[in-house]
Amino acid sequence: MMHQLRSSLVKNKKSKILLLVLDGVGGLPFPKLTELEAAKTPTLDKFVKKSETGAHTPIISGITPGSGSAHLALFGYDPLSYDIGRGVLEALGLDVHIGEKDLLIRGNFASVKRIGSKDIVTDRRAGRISTKINNRLVDLLNSKIKKIDQVGVKFVSGLDHRFVCKLSFKKKLDPQECMIIDTDPEEIGVEPVLPNHINRKSSPVSKIVIKLIAELKKVLKDEKKANFALLRGFSVYPEIPKFKELYNLEAASIVTYPMYKGISKLVGMNPLTVKDLSIKEQVSTLKNEYKNYDFFYFHIKKTDSYGEDGNYKGKIKIIEDFDKHLKNIMKLNFDVVCITGDHSTPSKMKSHSWHPVPVMINSKNSFYGTSNRFTEKECIKGNLGLFEGKSLMNYILAHADMLAKFGA
């Protein structure tokens, strides 16, 4: 595997590295300009002219990634080898204890409308209900649903419309037993998907999930918005090499949403406390903790959220807000600063997409002068060209002078 080769070449040397991930930052012309092209970004424009640029394909060409697999690629793991379910990542981000007998599921409170004999999804996120409403609904579910066929059931609130469901079985679960089809159709105007088993081993678990959905529907039926729940990311705790083992770097994450806290914990990063959801407070945390870690993963969520909502102006505003803070970030004098996204979320599509994601890497070793702005069209002109996301850590470590020569 690539990460094993890369790990064997890592020098016993420390550098200060910052990976800035604007979630879903890539876009499409809407109608004429992408969000990055339309945004006023004087600081990004300044630094990109002194940075090496390119674009990455999160998984492989034409494949639209989930956030978990896209982030694993950014951290240098082959996402095709480590298919981590969203349930475990969300649960880790919420500090849920996970045992070997537990199945974790990521849930969305959603809105459905009864048409004839069918439930039709009208909003996959129930209007992005508040976390306060979420807490009330989770308390209600926990009071009404405690077991399904001797399998323990526990619900945990996430942010906004998100929650986690933990199913506790009597025996250790094999990953093959948890291969269940997600019930989220990822579009409106259609029925939720049946949680059918993908193989014979997962048939018993799929039957439990079908009963769980029936109970969820019964409890939520009188809610105005969140009268249903969509389930995905059925998963058990995976075995995965840790970041420190691979790169000899003390790593920390500065994130504001549970899923990203979860994936950083999974690979062995220390999630740092941020006072609120603002970029300003994230930058403050970065400054305060600068001396304590070698590698920082700094994640901004709202670029993705606004893209999924089709909120073109909102996504532009978040990009511009980030740009205002970038000057202070660059003053910290990291040896390497990489700015990119985990995937593209064009407002035009209102969803994740397969389109390449712009990348800029700023260091003393940057081959610069090819791009004038941090946009999709400008970055692809750079000498990094188009590469698979799992190779990004190669470039970051190389810029930090941390990789030895390969071969004789």
Write the layout of secondary structure elements.
Blueprint: H1 2-9, E1 17-22, H2 35-38, H3 42-48, E2 52-57, H4 67-74, H5 86-93, E3 102-115, E4 118-123, H6 131-144, E5 147-148, E6 151-157, E7 162-168, H7 203-220, E8 228-235, H8 243-247, E9 251-254, H9 258-266, E10 270-271, H10 279-289, E11 295-300, H11 302-308, H12 312-330, E12 336-340, E13 357-362, H13 376-379, E14 385-388, H14 392-399
Parallel strand pairs: 1-11, 1-12, 2-14, 9-10, 9-11
Antiparallel strand pairs: 2-13, 3-4, 3-7, 3-8, 5-6, 6-7, 12-13
Helix pairs in contact: 5-9, 10-12, 11-12
Please provide a written account of the structure.
- The mean pLDDT is 92.
- Strand 3 and strand 4 form a beta hairpin.
- Helix 5 (86-93) packs across helix 9 (258-266) and helix 10 packs parallel to helix 12.
- This protein has two domains: 2-82 and 241-399, Alkaline Phosphatase, subunit A, CATH 3.40.720.10; 90-235, no CATH class.
- The longest helix is centred in the C-terminal third of the chain and has 19 residues, at 312-330.
- By secondary structure, it is of the alpha/beta class.
- The protein has an eight-stranded mixed beta sheet, with helices on both faces.
- It has helices spanning 2-9, 35-38, 42-48, 67-74, 86-93, 131-144, 203-220, 243-247, 258-266, 279-289, 302-308, 312-330, 376-379, 392-399, and strands at 17-22, 52-57, 102-115, 118-123, 147-148, 151-157, 162-168, 228-235, 251-254, 270-271, 295-300, 336-340, 357-362, 385-388.
Q: What name is given to the CATH topology of the largest domain? A: Alkaline Phosphatase, subunit A
Q: What is the assembly state of the chains in this entry?
A: single chain
- Distance separating the two termini: 20 Å
Structural class computed from helices and strand pairing: alpha/beta
Average pLDDT, rounded to a whole number, is 92
Cα-atom radius of gyration: 21 Å
Shape: globular
Tell me what portion of residues adopts beta-strand conformation. 15-25%
CATH superfamily of the largest domain: Alkaline Phosphatase, subunit A
CATH structural class of the largest domain: Alpha Beta
Number of structural domains:
2
CATH architecture of the largest domain: 3-Layer(aba) Sandwich
Spatial sequence of strands, sheet with the most strands:
10-9-11-1-12-13-2-14
